[in-house]
Amino acid sequence: MGLSNLHESTRRVRHPHHHLPISLSLAPLVMLVGMLAVTIRTYGSDSLSGPSQVVLLMSAAICCVIGSVFARVPWRKFEQTITQNISQVATALIILLFIGALGGAWMVSGIVPTMIYYGLELIHPSVFLASTCVISALVSIMTGSSWTTIATIGLALMGIGRAQGFEEGWIAGAIISGAYFGDKVSPLSDTTVLAAGACDVPLFTHIRYMMLTTIPSMVVALLLFIVAGLLHDTGDLTQLETFRLALAGRFHISLWLMLVPLLTAVMIVRRLPAIVTMFASTLLAMVFALLFQPEALTEIGGGDLFSGAMQSVFGSTSLTTSDPMLSELAATRGMSGMMSTIWLILCAVCFGATMTAGGMTEGITRMFISFAKGRMSTVSSTVASGLLLNATVADQYICILLSGNVFRNIYEKRNLESRLLSRTTEDAVTVTSVLVPWNSCGMTQSTVLGVSTLTYLPYCFFNLISPFMSILMAAIGYQIKPRRKEVQ
Length: 488
Fold this sequence. Notes:
Order of helices and strands: HHHHHHHHHHHHHHHHHHHHHHHHH
Largest sheet: none
Low-confidence stretches: 1-16
Mean pLDDT: 82
Distance between the termini: 28 Å
Number of strands: 0
């Protein structure tokens, strides 16, 4: 996504003609949560295949009615904002398609099975959760992308964790905690660059200052994962060996396959566009699949090698294995498996756009600004506003920009340094976006990992702790200095 274009388009959003009272501003969000609760209870795991999308569009319609009647917002304004917001997430939607293709190609080519095969040998169950968090963090720091980390190494770690008997929520929580830690502190991360730029803070000043809340949050999360791992019943470890033999029996396991992740890492470090990197990685994986897994491709294609290769990229695949867990792991959905998520994101963007155009987002933010009196209340208001923006706007990029633009003057008036605003914005917005089921991040990671947002939410310790750590540091006043003494 073009961050400069996003910044400019966000500034172009005009305020409605009349301010809305907080009750009307919150009404669409309350109705959305209520209708989603009923929908999830009724449809269960099928709620994301259509019912939730309808609920989001119904909530968007409620925003239009409230904005038109009470704020006198013309319909053209709603149309313009919806079009604007959809254009801002267009690149992310294309990346989602490539994530589906990449996941299918890496699985069928044997890359992910090879990672799992050697990972089961190297990572002991007692330290698996903590190791998963650390590995995800390191990969995310190097790539600057939580999405890429979760779509690649995250899939392998999910397979290892399942084989070792961990619940899916714990595994996904450890992966997401590490991935979002790395995304948050990496100078290659677009959200980190955006948060620093939106608050007019030098990038490395922003990163250094974030360490004061980010490292303690990560330490607490790691301690929790270590304790959970030590308490985990490893059971009969011979089952792990059985699973490794099943992997070797179904796929050609070879360290040569690790050339694809290595070359992908090189492309990421050289900062090639995400779409280019994912396309090249998918293409490389398919070449290696033809070389190392021709039997699997032939089985998928019904006897046709080329058909099997294409199917693994764009469609659903399944392979016959000697282990039921491996059969479930080896099944992929390709690009087509991402369509429900893309559909959901488009509906969520429509809801967020109508909230913004109708004046509801401004009304909610205005409520929090009214509480911003001192240092702690200002930071707490920023955190609360960021959390609610994640739930209403449903896109972390727009939320980061809104938080920076709205609170900048407040921090200046309170004589608070701008790096405090940029840090608080990241603590409140970047890491919590993945916890909202209808946020683009929550929908994406849930789809990629195959674990519902509400299932992994309680175990994303780093993401849950970060906002509270930001408020705690504000309460203590540690390294929070008057604006005139701000270190650049």
